[in-house]
Amino acid sequence: MTDELKQLLENNDRAFYVFDSKVLAERIAFLKKSLPEGTALCYAVKANPFVTGEIGEEVERLEICSPGEEEICRSLGIDSRRMVISGVYKTPSVLRRLAADESFQGIITIESVLQYQQLCTDAQGRQHPLRLLLRLTNGSQFGLDEQDLDQIVQQREQFPFLELAGVQFFSGTQKNSVKKFARELTYLDQYLLSLRERFGYQAAELEYGTGFPVSYFVGEELDETTLLREFSALLKELKCGSRIILELGRSMVASCGKYYTHIVDIKVNKGQHYALTDGGLHHITYFGQFMAMKQPYLSVVGKTDVLADKDFTICGALCTMNDILVKQVHLPEIRVGDVLCFERAGAYCMTEGISLLLSRDLPAIYLRGQDGALYRLRSPFETYIINQPKYERMF
Ligand SMILES: Cc1ncc(COP(=O)(O)O)c(C=O)c1O
Fold first, then answer.
1. CATH architecture type of domain 3-16+255-382
2. For the domain bounded by 21-254, which CATH number is listed?
3. Of 120, 142, 200, 365, whose CB has the highest number of CB atoms within 10 Å?
């Protein structure tokens, strides 16, 4: 156990997260190195808002999907040139504000004809054209149908204060099939070529949310080097001439996070060994963890060399039978007070949980910075305040 972890454990008698900037920087460098030269990266802030300030200049852009995420980026002093204001629902007042703000030099994605129409009105008279990416649908509620996108491209000269920078596409996450990437890239390539042929429009950019996978569970390791090599070969075959920006979330940040939770009770019920923790599904949730059928990478702090003793079902502190973190995992001999460390917890785990059920506290969040120092990003957060009724007489 490092001295730092020892100190953290001494200072925290409750669950907490630690994110590591160095691990994050190494991961980004690895991704950059694995992709063809000139491929840019865009970080999807939703994957982990807490490390947004640690995403260095190697990542050209940040994809921001809500006013809250925009607020987080602005509070960190992120330059608007790095912002991609995205999201299926963009608050009209946000669009109005951005359209009126000449100092805003980022990009806005267009997910519907309505969003486009609003900007056709609101951005009139701008000196610097507002840059837009047209999101092409994958057959879900997101993005524009081809016909609608075609029409926007066809009309582009009527609206010189709007610059169509290119096309954005995202079709889902945890994709590990090169065939699927090939199908999507071929489709996008052909569509972009057809925009050129039919409307004389060369999309300067293709921002592609690949949905690169993360292996979260024991027995589900993936051969990422091969996947990235084959994906890169596909990128090199594209004929559309658009600059490629890959929009990534989990693949960039999952590895930089760990979650620590204390064992607070141990019992045997009907022959089954249970370890109860001070955490739970309101703190940590992995993609595909449903009903705890899979086993995340975890260890007992300070006992990694100790042989497994028994199978335990690890449960959280929520009073719902669903609060099972792992079923039947081999653990060394454990005691109340031991701490479990869950790995690969840097993406979505800390925000996708059922945070408000039972009005329990959310964990503290720490960051090991590039400078080696440890920072606290959030103190333990009391949620009862959100759930507490406050009587304000209205009528
Ligand atoms: C538009 C868009 N881009 C990127 C992402 C990031 O996906 P992932 O975390 O799988 O890389 C998402 C996730 O929902 C998304 O909706």
1. Beta Barrel (2.40)
2. 3.20.20.10
3. 365
